[in-house]
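re: ur question from earlier - yeah i can do the single chain one, its not a big deal. heres the input i used so u can compare w yours
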Amino acid sequence: MEKRLIEAEKFVFKGKDFSAETVTKKMQTFLTESRKAKIEKVLNGRTCNVSVLVERIHDTGNIAAVMRSMENLGFQKID
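and the output i got, formated as tokens:
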């Protein structure tokens, strides 16, 4: 798998730092080939090229709904 993590370049677990590449390599040993293919398909459908604009929010719960929709559509970044 190619490196695709956008923001998270390291992970901290029990006080130890792990690179995204190390975590990805370790997790591959637990995945079947069909699962790897599904993950690749999902990752290939994600994008950072879309911006979402929200204005005049009256109900702050709508922000969470927008964020869930963005995740479901594969948008990777919220500014």
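The beta strands are 10-13, 16-19. not sure if urs matches, ping me
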